UniProtKB/TrEMBL annotation:
Transmembrane feature ranges: none
GO terms classed as biological process: steroid metabolic process
Protein species of origin: Micromonospora wenchangensis
PANTHER family referenced in this protein's UniProt entry, alphabetically: 3-OXOSTEROID 1-DEHYDROGENASE (PTHR43400:SF10), FUMARATE REDUCTASE (PTHR43400)
One MF annotation (Gene Ontology) recorded for this entry: steroid dehydrogenase activity, acting on the CH-CH group of donors
Domain FAD-dependent oxidoreductase 2 FAD-binding: 5-423
Cofactor(s), by name: FAD
Alphabetical UniProt keywords: FAD, Flavoprotein, Oxidoreductase
Taxonomic path: Bacteria, Bacillati, Actinomycetota, Actinomycetes, Micromonosporales
Protein name: FAD-binding dehydrogenase
Top-rank taxon, per record: Bacteria
Amino acid sequence: MNDCDTLVAGAGAAGMAAALAAARPGRTVVLAEARETFRQGSNTAMSTSMIPAAGSRWQRAAGVEDSPGRFLADIRAKTHDRVDPVVAAALTSVAPELVDWLADDCGVPLELVTDFRYPGHSALRCHSVPDRSGAALHRALLDAAADRDDLHLIVPATLVDVRTDEGGAVRGAVLERPDGSREELSCPAVVLATNGFAADPDLVRRHLPEIAHGVYHGGEASRGDALRLAERLGLDTGYLDAYQGHGSLAVPDAILLTWATVMHGGFLVDSTGRRFGDETVGYSEYAVPVLSRPDGRAWVVYDERVHDACRAFKDYRDVLAAGAVRWADDVDALAAVLGAPTDALAATLADADAAASGTASDAFGRSAWGAPLRPPYAAVRVTGALFHTQGGLRVDRHARVLRAGQPVPGLYAAGGAAVGISGHGADGYLAGNGLLAALGLGYLAGRHATA
């Protein structure tokens, strides 16, 4: 007799989705989490809760025309057609069903984000909780799990091995407690939701050398557990050079300054008072350019209009509470805040004003501005950061892990433990790719494991 029907390792978004989808009547699910701090310290809790879905009921209610095919085309364009085609097709297809399930079955209070469009998305398709907080999303999933009688959370317990039979099918898993004691559970299905490897400096230097000197801003449990299991079991891996970076982590406070500050009309300058690129290409690929500036620092400059538009984000309110936003009444005062030459900064502001007003073209090709900035000006000092990796175990359309191109019976992977939909490097990342790969693959895995 099995100890459980499905064992899920990791209680972030991927693991929660897998456990909730697998917890059907008469099916016992064990959810094992390695860290007691996972409620506050997971990548999910640290996210802005953006879940892209094309063709959702929220879009229809808002009159937004979109489709999974259009979303897939956007992904292919952003990744230069270097995305895992099976995973991308599976996630864009299941996304509308996923957000319905999150709202109706899990009680997640979703809404469509309509105040601006993130880079690379050709339609308004990001769904989020009202305060744009990953912590609120995570709490909703945990509340849903608490209502499932056959879903049992074990904390702290780390998955250290997966047992298979002579034919290679999963037959059990081994959990380890902090005191070193081990327990072997019998089960026919295991979901690896242990996240990626961004918290392991050696693995980052090996696979992501361009961002290795950046700040890591993510969960400490992302230590590459799935990759080590892949080595032992001979599992297929891919896209290990893919990651999500971010070009606006407030320093020294280490709080995310939402890129909405940019999309509403703000821009970045370095200590010389000059811009250094088109900020609207995306926050992920802007991490390395920011790190390449003097001292690896830059400033996000915006105004009161942008400030008011960003207050919906809890992260932004946290930046305000930390005192990271500096205000200046005019260009001279702003130059003093930035420690930049006044003449150069005044020229930058004038050029940005002309581009935003449509009276001149931007030297970097930026076309999306919102409106020209007007004093008083706001400024936040930022650096480039690594948020999470986007490569891992190769999976099929049901999130089953592959070995030599064939699915391993009973073994699944989701979120950072699996390949994502961001292609290679940082520039293929679209807002919400991480959470869609986590929740979507988790949902597919849990549903298939108990089908």
